[in-house]
Every structure is written in structure tokens, then in C-alpha cells.
Amino acid sequence: MNTYHDLLKGDEWAVFGQFTTDQQAGKTRPEVQKAYPPDAKLIDLVPPEAFNVGTRPVIDVIRERRSHRYFTDGALSLEELSFLLWATQGVRGVSPDGTRYYRNVPSGGNRHPLETYLSIHRVEGVDVGLYRYLPLDHKLLLLRADQEVGTQVSQAALHQSSSHEVKEFYFIQDCAVAFVWTAIPYRSEWRYTTAGSKLVAIDAGHICQNLYLACGALGLGTCSIGAINRKKMDAVLGVDGEEEFSFYAAPVGRVE
């Protein structure tokens, strides 16, 4: 037996049915957005109803989909960033009882176990620093203003680079904004116990694919990155590494 396969086999539903889930036990449902201090600095994003971007036909976007590892030094507009965040984790509505959030990506059991962090380097009107997206509010939460955050996130992602012309291009450090997703597995485990881990991984794929499509609709580029030093990235993001830990990343920027 290959134990490396165990995560991918974490959906044995007949076995899963033998457990009492925390949901069935009446334990409190975990929130789908982390709390933040009342005095936190929030930045309003462009609301979806005001978007004037992202109108390219989806058939063209799919035909041209590719990974980009080099970006120009052009900045993103706040509207473009707002569109990318809405496309990947945005909320379109809430069920009448307030227990289900309808988003632009599917999630097993509507649990949405991923949080979006942003290392912002070049976005018009937004200071360089580390942020977290608040999908229920459609706002950015400033975690810290930091001119070195791009280098820190890049080093935690193994400082990956590609050769461009006559120089090395560090595609997380040198992009306009880097997306880093963390997992909070209990959101899924609360309902699905042992099957939750596999569902977290599946959800991450949904989110990043929407980022590819949204970037294509804007004429931007991105590249999914699974190779990260989790402990280093957790330290950069300020998460505990146990109940929440870094999971996936993607740089975004303008392309030639």
C-alpha cells in the first residue's frame, strides 16, 4: 500500500458515515471569514456592480490560458484587483438563514476553508504591504505596511525565478501582487471529518483556476505555485501553522 495516496483517498464515504461529525454533535459552526480587530485599517474595493473590466469572451480566455513567470513593472488598478478577488472568493449572496454564502467558486458543503492573503507591490492607490481579503465585506484588511514583504514572500516560496533576457526574474518578488492562500481545515472537517482534507485541496484548485480565468479576462498573467516552505510562509503571514497554514500561491502582473 502506498501511504502517499492516503490524502487522495480521503473520501471513503461509507467509512465517513460511521463517524459522528462535529456538525451532528451540535458543535458551533466555524465562521467562513476570520475575525479582525474593530480598529483595523480597511480598504474599500470596487463593488462588482461597478466593474467595467473583465469582459473578454470566456472562449478566448480558455484558448489563451497559460502560466506566466515574467511580468512587466506595470501596476494593477484597484478595480482590476477587486475583480480578481471577487472572481476567486467573492460572495454573491447569503441564504435566508445566514448559514450559506454563495460565491463564485464551488466548495464542498459550502464550507470555504481557504483564506486569501495578498503581498501587494504595485496596485494603484494601495500601499505596499501584506493584506487579507475579507470576502463577506469585499474589503482589504491591512495586516502590515512593509516594503520588504515581497522579498519575504518570495523567499518563503523558495525564491523561484526564471531567466528573462539577461537577468533572473523572481516572479513572486517582482510581480504586482502575490496571492497566498491558507487553509483552515476545520471548516471542512466540522462537516466531513476525515474527508475534509481532500475537499480543501479540491477547493484550492477551484480558486486558482478562477484566478487564471479572471487574469485572462483582464489581459494579466499568473502562475500557480505549490512549492513553498510552509513554515517560513506561515511566519510571514502571521498564522499559527496548525489550525491555519499556508497552502498555495500565485503571482499576478501585467504581461507583454
Put the structure in a nutshell.
By secondary structure, the protein is of the alpha+beta class. It is built from seven helices and eleven strands.
Task: Give an overview of the whole structure.
There is one protein chain. With 256 residues, this protein is of the alpha+beta class. It has a single domain, classed as 3-Layer(aba) Sandwich (NADH Oxidase), CATH 3.40.109.10. The chain is 27% helix and 23% strand. The chain has helices spanning 13-16, 58-63, 78-89, 149-156, 186-192, 196-218, 230-237, and strands at residues 42-44, 91-94, 101-103, 114-120, 129-134, 139-145, 161-164, 167-170, 177-183, 220-222, 245-254. The strands form three sheets. It has a seven-stranded antiparallel beta sheet. The model has no long low-confidence stretch (mean pLDDT 93).
Here the CATH topology equals NADH Oxidase
Q: Report the top-level CATH class.
A: Alpha Beta
* Alpha carbon gyration radius: 18 Å
The structural class is: alpha+beta
Beta-strand portion reads 15-25%
Give the full name of the CATH homologous superfamily: NADH Oxidase
Mean pLDDT: 93
Across the major sheet, the strand order is 1-6-5-4-9-11-10
Total of DSSP H or I helical runs spanning 4+ residues: 7
Unreliable stretches, pLDDT < 50, 5 or more residues? none
- Ends: how far apart? 48 Å
- Looking at how many chains there are and whether they match, the oligomeric state comes to single chain
The name of the CATH architecture is 3-Layer(aba) Sandwich
**Integer tally of domains:** 1
What can be said about the biggest beta sheet? 7 strands, antiparallel
Q: Name the shape in a single word.
A: globular
**Helix proportion of residues, in percent?**
25-40%
The beta-strand count equals 11
